[in-house]
Amino acid sequence: MGLDSVELVLRTEDEFSITISDEEAAAAVKVGDLYRIVLAKLDVAPGCLTSTAFYLTRRALVDALGIPRRSIRPATRLSPLLPDETRKNQWEQIRDRLGLAMPGLRIPGDIKQFIYKRAFFVAGALAIVICIVGLSLGWPGLAVFPLAVVSWIILSMVGVSILERPGLATELPTETAGELAQVVLSLNQGRFQPANGTSEQTDEDVWRRLVDIICDQLQVKREEVVPNARFVDDLGVS
Predict the structure, then answer these.
(1) Interval 55-81: pLDDT, tens
(2) What is the pLDDT, as a whole number, of residue 196?
(3) Is the pLDDT assigned to residue 43 strictly greater than 90?
(4) Greatest CA separation found in the chain?
(5) Residues 47, 49, 51: CA angle, nearest 5 degrees
(6) pLDDT digits 0-9 by tens, 83-141
């Protein structure tokens, strides 16, 4: 386990007053894995807000895809309903029907790694060219090398932004309809109000707190923290 992984596990343990073994931590490849581990160690009540979010999400799926309502359950896998060739358009239709903030499709991890490596390689090559040209023109080294470093950083960022075209985003952010509803709830907290004033901890409370921890610890955006997000490939955990 890298330093990021260890610190994330320790902070999760502190936040929920639980103990996560090394074996459990190693098995938490995705955010959803860690969420299920935390839930298994806590006595939480099923959340009515999660049910509300699921009903809204299911209605959007049914309307957009034209499928029977009974065919959508929390454990229903989304990939068979959203084939690759039509997934992008279908996802936009689901977003329109839902009318709430919703996670976008993601670039597959292997493609994202290829993009990053290619962008950094090209930017590095251009930075070297800047060094060679600058030194050949007689620029002082103290000016050339910082300029090359700054150029490498800027060119890397520009390269990644260019290569990460929306058309490359084809991977679903969640595996099941229930997980999608959980993320919709997390992204639209202000739109969902508790049905009563109970202070009992629910599963959506656990999810929100875990997302807060991950966002703060890893400095990632909230919409990136979805159950299907991989800690290493998608969230940059070392």
Answers:
(1) 889 889 999 999 988 788 888 999 999
(2) 47
(3) no
(4) 74
(5) 80
(6) 988 999 999 999 999 999 999 888 776 666 766 677 677 777 777 777 777 778 776 76
The C-alpha torsion from 164 through 166 and 170 to 176, rounded to 10°, is 110
Q: What's the first-to-final CA gap in the chain, in angstroms?
A: 8
Alpha-carbon span 63 to 69, nearest angstrom: 9
State the residue for tokens 């709430």.
100
Tell me the whole-structure pTM to 2 decimals: 0.56
Residue 3 neighbours by CB distance under 10 Å = 9
What is the residue extent of each domain of the chain?
1-45+201-238, 47-103+174-199, 109-167
Q: CA-CA distance, 64 to 87, in Å (whole number)?
A: 11
State whether CATH 1.10.1200 applies to domain 47-103+174-199.
yes
Neighbours of 55 (CB within 10 A): 12
Dist CA 236 CA 214 (whole Å): 11
Q: What is the DSSP letter of 153?
A: H
